[in-house]
Design brief:
CATH architecture of the domain at 35-43 and 55-163: 2-Layer Sandwich
Number of strands: 6
Radius of gyration: 23 Å
Largest sheet: 4 strands, antiparallel
Structural class: alpha+beta
Strand order of the largest sheet: 1-2-4-3
Number of helices: 5
Distance between the termini: 36 Å
Helix content: 25-40%
Shape: extended
Order of helices and strands: HHHEEHEEEEH
CATH class of the domain at 35-43 and 55-163: Alpha Beta
CATH superfamily of the domain at 35-43 and 55-163: Transcriptional coactivator/pterin dehydratase
Strand content: 15-25%
């Protein structure tokens, strides 16, 4: 299957030498299912309070680097917390889980997220229900020495792990399309 073999006359003339991409279709091999357990943020360990963070992780505290790292955790966005006191304007990661079936599905999702976060002993900034069926989860590191409240490497790792939660049974079924 795939592209035909090139002929000898085509090889001599350099036919296709300036084309973009590959000459055949053998390079289009899908990665195995479950590979995200071995690569990406979800596979990284959380750093404890006594461990030194490498220099690359310290760069993540800057706003520009945090936006770059955010692209590796789909669905999460950087927002500034609103409120009074020390939390006012502090950055955090936020994910809105919409299209849930009902309030019972929202409560089930909150339970799943809290169970996952509890396994790693990493605190959520906040989690709650908006309206009837929208769950909003926020992640933020409370305080780092010399930095203060920020979005840290561990927040991105935890966001990637939360993205791994199966939501198929909690979402609304897709609407049936009528093509007449």
């Amino acid at each position: 299957m795939g592209a035909r073999d090139i002929r000898e006359g085509e090889m001599v003339t350099g036919f296709g030498s300036k084309t973009l991409g590959e000459a055949d279709t053998l390079h289009k091999i899908a990665p195995p299912k479950g590979i995200e357990k071995f690569i990406g943020f979800a596979s990284l360990p959380l750093r404890g309070p006594g461990q030194e963070a490498p220099d690359e992780a310290n760069e993540a505290y800057a706003e520009e680097a945090a936006y770059t790292m955010r692209s590796r955790t789909p669905g999460w966005r950087l927002v500034a917390l609103s409120g009074s006191g020390a939390n006012n304007g502090a950055p955090c990661l936020e994910q809105r889980f919409e299209t849930l079936k009902d309030a019972a599905a929202a409560a089930e999702l909150i339970g799943r997220i809290e169970a996952l976060v509890g396994c790693y002993t990493w605190p959520l900034e906040s989690i709650g229900v908006e309206g009837n069926d929208v769950v909003v989860a926020r992640l933020r590191t409370a305080d780092l020495p010399g930095v203060g409240a920020c979005v840290s490497h561990n927040d991105f790792v935890m966001a990637a792990r939360i993205n791994g939660i199966d939501l198929k049974d909690l979402k609304k079924p897709p609407k049936k399309r009528n093509w007449i």
